[in-house]
Amino acid sequence: MAQHEVHKTIALIDTEIRGKATGSPIELAGRLCMSVRMLYFYIDMMTSLGAEIFFSKETNSFLYEEDGYFKDGIRWIVTSKVRASK
């Protein structure tokens, strides 16, 4: 897989998470045309790059622990130290 495709996919997932309406892992994977297993591969990659991601059953969405975003699909930037409620 080309590096630019990885960055592009991380940027797409980041946009979905910041929108706070990803839906279930199956729904998000379907919208991104990938398997749930591949989605979790990317979530793990994003976590290893510094983002703390969890799934909220209350909102039925993946959320970030801290406000932030991925710059260029590879660098995690924290915009606020306020923690999201689980």
Characterization of the model:
This is Helix-turn-helix type 11 domain-containing protein. The chain has 86 residues and is α+β, with helices and mostly antiparallel strands. It has one domain: Arc Repressor Mutant, subunit A, CATH 1.10.10. It has 3 helices and 4 strands. Strand 1 and strand 2 form a beta hairpin. Helix 2 packs across helix 3. It is globular, with a radius of gyration of 12 Å. The termini are far apart.
The multimeric state of the shown protein is: single chain
Give the structural class: alpha+beta
Just give the CATH class: Mainly Alpha
Shape: globular
Number of DSSP E strands: 4
Biggest sheet layout: 2 strands, antiparallel
Number of domains: 1
Notable features of this structure?
Arc Repressor Mutant, subunit A, 4 strands, alpha+beta, 27% strand, globular
Describe the secondary structure blueprint for this structure.
Layout: H1 3-18, H2 25-31, H3 36-48, E1 53-56, E2 61-64, E3 66-71, E4 75-83
Helix pairs in contact: 2-3
Short structural summary:
This protein is of the alpha+beta class and 86 residues long.
